[in-house]
Amino acid sequence: MALQLPIYFDHNATTPVDNRVFDAMAPYFTEHFGNAASRNHPFGWKAEAGVENARGQVADLIGAGAKDIVITSGATESDNLAIKGVAEMYRDKGDHIITCVSEHKAVVDPCKRLAEDGFEITWLTPDEFGRVSAQQVAEAITDRTILISIMAANNEVGTINPIAEIGSVARDRGVFFHTDATQAAGKMPIDVDEMKIDLLSMSAHKIYGPKGVGCLYVRRRNPRVRLRCQMDGGGHERGMRSGTLNVPGIVGLGEACSVAAAEMDPETQRLTALRDRLQDGISGGLDFVTLNGHPTDRLAGTANLSFAYVEGEALMMKIKDIAVSSGSACTSASLEPSYVLRAMGVTDALAHSSIRFSLGRGTTEEEVDYAIGQVIKAVTELRELSPLYELAMEQQN
Amino acid sequence: MAYSDKVMDHFSNPRNVGALDKNSSHVGTGIVGAPECGDVMKLQIEVDDDGQIVDAKFKTFGCGSAIAASSLATEWLKGKDLDQATELKNTEIASELSLPPVKIHCSVLAEDAIHAAIQDWKRKNGK
Questions:
Q1: What is the ipTM of this complex?
Q2: What is the torsion angle, in degrees rounded to the nearest 10, for the CA atoms of residue A182, residue A186, residue A189 and residue A195?
């Protein structure tokens, strides 16, 4: 198959809906269009059946029971529900929450909001690979801690956290453990019982499902987690999240989970090989390239690289046929470089020089080889324009 | 964000990339910005004995707008005398390149680079 430009290497941002997912969703738009809460006629029953089947598929992906799954509009809502829901429900038990500075904004911002309301938040700092340790968590727990929220895998650098160890610590100390698994669910094995996870957020659109739907896993026993509902209005999802269910979206979420589960192992192998090929190809043709993230405990498709002396947005413009993202300030509204890279100890200069490549289901070897060539050429040309590169070369001689 | 055609043009075909001899008394070198900010511009001017800028070169670590702003600056500097060069305003650069608000600072840095280069020349030539 001929190479089709532009190439999409930004799968951590979002993914195309898989054809199988699209086909599964289609009937629920115009044929089985009923409201899943319509108890009294076949239109509703059909829709409900679709939802319940999907709920089971989601649960299977993470080793949960269908009744533990609360459907939301996506991981951001799930994170808000988990964090605010627990905080508000258990305030009389405690007001201390442990999280990490490099969490996604969907976790950071709710925690900041709670801090404004008088909660105490401990912000752990990750190591140079972006990893938080169980020991760090253990040392931060007090008798007022009611929640630990640590992501399963980081969106910017792909680093995987020791979730099972953290879950163990949390369980031992009687503190609920929430993990934002938006980047991890469907890409690596997760079992909520084995890993002692009490709450888990995920989104469909990261695993070839539609945007606008996700879920929050909420443990019902050993221990039971109760939440103060954030969306009132009818009591849907066992009172935890009101609102008419996005039936086609949920069916899509379920199918996406099912496909991801079935293909996880071979796909992980395939993506790891492609990602390593990309990294090796680029490092082989350029000096001063550094990897941001853990060398091995990392999502299969993610490679966040810094190209010293070259600015990230300029680099993205030069490789305009390849869709990627950057930790450079120029790409954000605030002109601050990536807070995740900064938390990991990456210098601001190198954070400004970073590009995140995130490969996915449709990525081919051909695309990777094309990208290698383009990146080497672009970096080389931009270094010719760079006063920092000029200075570095002068200092070498 | 969509870059203007002019920014794209300067980015794809930057004018006057390179270096002049910073040790020459005819050359003024200005380096502004900081790597931590994602923006460093090095702008050099070569001034003849009549105070005319006969050559200008730049190198920039920065986004497409920053590269375009400094490239445009070198184009505008050539053929001007030092007084005219001092008059160049960032607003003119921003306007020519149709820079959006979030990129205006790139033009400000280019103006700073011009002033720094002129100051350096003046300092070297006892002016």
A1: 0.94
A2: 30
Of chain B, the end-to-end C-alpha distance in Å amounts to 43
pLDDT in tens, B57-114: 999 999 999 999 999 999 999 999 999 999 999 999 999 999 999 899 999 999 999 9
Q: Domain boundary at A259, A294, A329, which?
A: A259
Query: In chain B, what are the domain boundaries?
Result: 5-121
Gap from A311 CA to chain B (nearest CA, Å): 5
User: Is A146's pLDDT higher than 90?
Assistant: yes
| Mean of the per-residue pLDDT values of chain A | 96
CB–CB of B59 and A317 under 8 A? no
Q: Which residues of B touch A337 (CB under 8 A)?
A: 38
CATH number at residue A193: 3.40.640.10
Pair A344, A130: CB distance under 8 Å: yes
Chains A & B: contacts with CB separation below 8 Å: 71
User: Does the structural domain B5-121 have CATH classification 3.40.50.10070?
Assistant: no
Q: Are A173 and A254 members of one domain?
A: yes
**A81 belongs to a structural domain:** yes
Claim to verify: residue A35 and residue A131 sit in the same structural domain: yes
Partner-chain contact B64 A310, CB within 8 Å: no
pLDDT, tens digit (0-9, with 9 covering 90-100), for B22-57: 999 999 999 999 998 899 999 999 999 999 999 999
Identify the helix (H) or strand (E) that includes residue A344: none
Task: Give, for A280, the enclosing helix (H) or strand (E).
Answer: helix A247-285
Q: Are A214 and A204 in contact (CB under 8 A)?
A: yes
Residues A279 and A152 in one domain: no
Chain A 297-336, residues with CB within 8 Å of chain B CB atoms:
309-314, 317, 328-330, 333, 335
Cβ distance B38 to A387 less than 8 Å, yes or no, reads no
Q: Are A132 and A150 in contact (CB under 8 A)?
A: yes
Instruction: Looking at the structure, tell me whether residues A92 and A77 fall in a common domain.
Output: yes
Q: Tell me: the pLDDT tens digits for A53-101?
A: 999 999 999 999 999 999 999 999 999 999 999 999 999 999 999 999 9
Residue A237 and residue A291 in one domain: no
Q: Would you please indicate which residues of B are annotated as catalytic (active-site) residues?
A: 37, 106
Distance from CA of A136 to the nearest CA of B (A): 29
> Which tokens hold the place of A119?
């909660």
* Domain extent at residue A296: 7-14+264-396
Last residue in a domain, options A259, A291, A318: A259
